[in-house]
Amino acid sequence: MENQDSFSVVEEGKWWGSKQLQQINGFWFMPLVVPGVQRVLAEFNPNPNDVILASFPKTGTTWLKSLLYSIIYPSCLDSLAKHNPHDLVPFLEMRVFSEGSPPYIMPPPNAKTNIFSTHIPYQLLGKTFESSGCRVVYVARNPKDTLNSLWHFVNKWKVAEEGEWGLEEAVEKFCQGIVPFGSYYDHVLGYKMASLKNPNKVFFITYEDLKSDDTKTHVKRLAEFLGCPFGEEDNDKVEEIVRSCSFEVLSNHDVNKSEDSHTVGTMTIATKALFREAIVGDHKKYLNDESIKRIDALTKEKFHNFGIAYGV
Questions:
Q1: CB atoms near residue 208 (< 10 Å)
Q2: Which tens digit of pLDDT belongs to each residue from 110-150?
Q3: Is residue 152 flagged as an active site residue?
Q4: Catalytic residue of the set 86, 119, 152, 187
Q5: Burial group, residue 129, by CB count within 10 angstroms (0-12, 13-18, 19+)
Q6: DSSP conformation letters of 25-52
Q7: Could you say which residues of the chain have pLDDT below 50?
Q8: Domains contained in the chain, CATH given
Q9: Helices (H), 198-282
């Protein structure tokens, strides 16, 4: 694992038209995010009770933010109807440690647990997690759906008005790993290996498992990991959390249907664009057979060689 004290921006590369990314210790970041990332690596000192939601972009982050918030602060479930999940669970690198970013909603009074989120890879931030004893929840998603969702999301940014990100270019850059916070495969592997090494501190779950017919079971597993387990008498509470955090309910709150710009760190996008689709396998409507075969082959090479039967 890299020593986070030695981080540096070492290289630049194109990923979308004339848009550049900068590389820190092997991972790619948008230039405007780099100062926040560097501050997190240098200054972030979580408390043992803190919970960090980690993810690669467009893998279910918004959904997990709402679930974790509801599990840890069950008395504040109505907050989801008033605030976007990204305001309730702020990004470390794009909100908490980013200068000039909009304020976020503070935890409830007397809360013993803070919840933060991050897209920073474990390879960069792992030593901070390990030394603090905080809990980390990581959500992964099938690479083809991740790419598809990322492609749609990027093309809804304000800067996309200058020129769209073509799907063929998106596939190429995704496979090369030259996408924000990429490579995807190294990102997932970092957290997956950490969860195998220390399952009491790193909880690895997939978007597909959560979207299964057994969502309530996985919510109960999350609650147990977070130290606030549900009892047999709490089935109604679990059902209410699952319902309140569902795509259908969240996306229909007025706060999440707005055409007004929402700023997530350095990115400006219409708030409703944060809720596009929640369908497993949606990539089949957009990716051609050649692209699917290429990504599947890469997934087998990257994941299956490590014994991780996921993503194909």
A1: 16
A2: 899 999 999 999 999 999 999 999 999 999 999 999 999 99
A3: no
A4: 119
A5: buried
A6: TTEEE-GGGHHHHHHHHHH----TT-EE
A7: 1-4, 265
A8: 43-306 (3.40.50.300)
A9: 207-210, 215-225, 235-244, 247-250
